[in-house]
Every structure is written in structure tokens, then in C-alpha cells.
Design a protein that fits this description.
- This protein is α/β, with parallel strands linked by helices and 240 residues long.
- It has eight helices and nine strands.
- It has two domains: 163 residues, P-loop containing nucleotide triphosphate hydrolases (Rossmann fold, 3-Layer(aba) Sandwich); 72 residues, no CATH class.
Length: 240
């Protein structure tokens, strides 16, 4: 699989990227914290790339970079003419607008034309399955209903690169099952998928390659089994 990927073109290239935030270091003092320090890899067309690492190592920051929501403080993210959508993101939701109106705005923010969103509206409504609430203001929605609509709009945007940030926990039990099946379909499609998960079994089942990030730096990249074994062994040693 790795050899086959080398023959494919890159969809997104991450080149020596670093991202810094300001965090409080005292009552009157702040300090710069590097969420990502020096990260490089390619996302190839048609592959499913896994990203693994403990909490706070910069995985979610990395997905926001790939989606174009933030810019790096050093290095470059090169988008080779593709659309990338972070599926767990509820983009453009305004509480006093209806679900239908929010679906239009959110879809446009994800790169669709208004006409394209309207053409998909019946499918978006059916997939979200929130009934009459679809035409009511969002301030009356539960968190699960907002998640349903956000996921439905994002999935119907049909991006070239799908970015998943532990999104398999979206909504109630029935919707989680439906979203999991949708994600599995995406993994086996021609889309590129970047999957962030803490679950090694999920990476083994779904991914073609794996990137391991530790302390803001890529510690391993390549064959899923090899990188996972190194990752698990590393943290086993840390605990002992």
C-alpha cells in the first residue's frame, strides 16, 4: 500500500509546520505554547490517513490547519486544489435562524454554492432527521439535533478530503450508528480521509497509513501496524 501511495499525487502537503498559542503562565504573564512544532507529511488522493497521539499533542490543531481554518506560525500547508471539510464542525450556525437557513449558510461556508445547497436540501433534511425542527429557529435545538444537522450538511458538501476528529460519537445511538456507516463508506470511497482517533483498533481497520504525533512533533509515519506498535510500546514504557 505504501508503494502504491507514492505513485499517487498529494492532495495536501504539510511542510515543517508549527502553530503557537498564548497561554496564561501567571496572574499577569502569558507565554507562547507550541501546539505543533515541526510536522511534515502528505495526504494522498484516495487514501485514509490516521493520526494518533495522546490528548493535547496537537491533533485537533492539525485538522484545523488542513481544513484551512487557521494558518501556521511557521512552515507551510499546501493545498493542491482540493476541498477539505472538518466533519465535526458546525460551521456558520446562528441561533435565531432556522435549521434550513443555517444549512444554506453552513454549506456555503464549506464551499458550496447556494444553488448546490438547495439542490441537496431534501437529502440534508432527511439525513439529519430532526422533523419539523428543520424549519424552526436553532435556539430550540438540543445539542444532539445541532450535531445531526452539522454532520448532515458537512457530509453532503462532498469534499475531496474528509477530516474526522473523533466524530463517531455524534448524536444519539441511532444516529451514531448511521454516521459510523457513512464514515465507513467514505473510507472505502475515492475520497481522501484523515482520521483522528485514540482507538488503535479503528486505525488498524480503516487506515492505509498512520502518523503518530507526540509533543507537537511527528514521531512516526508509515505502515499502520508498525507505527501503532511503536506508539503502544512507547507509552507502555512511560507508564512503567
Amino acid at each position: 500500500m505504501i508503494q502504491k501511495l507514492k505513485e499517487r499525487q498529494a492532495a495536501i502537503s504539510v511542510e515543517n509546520v508549527g502553530v503557537a498559542y498564548q497561554r496564561r503562565a501567571g496572574f499577569f504573564r502569558k507565554e507562547k505554547f507550541w501546539a505543533l512544532k515541526d510536522v511534515s507529511f502528505d495526504v494522498y488522493h484516495g487514501e485514509t490517513l490516521g493520526v494518533i497521539g495522546r490528548n493535547g499533542v496537537g491533533k485537533s490543531t492539525l485538522l484545523r490547519l488542513l481544513a484551512g481554518l487557521i494558518s501556521p506560525d511557521k512552515g507551510h500547508v499546501v493545498n493542491h486544489g482540493v476541498t477539505a471539510t472538518l466533519l465535526s464542525l458546525q460551521v456558520g450556525f446562528i441561533q435565531y435562524l432556522t435549521g434550513r437557513e443555517n444549512a444554506i449558510l453552513s454549506g456555503m461556508m464549506l464551499g458550496l454554492s447556494k444553488q448546490a445547497v438547495l439542490a441537496q436540501m431534501d437529502h440534508i433534511r432527511s439525513y439529519a432527521n430532526i422533523g419539523e425542527f428543520f424549519d424552526q429557529p436553532m435556539h430550540g435545538y438540543s445539542s444532539g439535533m445541532r450535531a445531526r444537522l452539522g454532520f448532515s450538511v458537512a457530509i453532503h458538501a462532498d469534499p475531496d478530503v474528509v477530516l474526522l476528529d473523533e466524530v463517531l460519537g455524534v448524536g444519539d445511538a441511532l444516529f451514531r450508528e448511521k454516521s459510523q456507516n457513512t464514515i465507513k463508506d467514505l473510507v472505502h470511497s475515492d475520497n481522501s480521509v484523515v482520521l483522528v482517533s485514540h482507538q488503535p483498533a479503528m486505525h488498524r481497520e480503516m487506515c492505509d497509513r498512520l502518523v503518530w504525533i507526540e509533543a507537537g512533533v511527528v514521531q512516526g509515519s508509515g505502515d499502520v501496524g508498525t507505527v501503532l506498535d511503536d506508539y503502544l510500546q512507547y507509552h507502555k514504557k512511560k507508564r512503567s
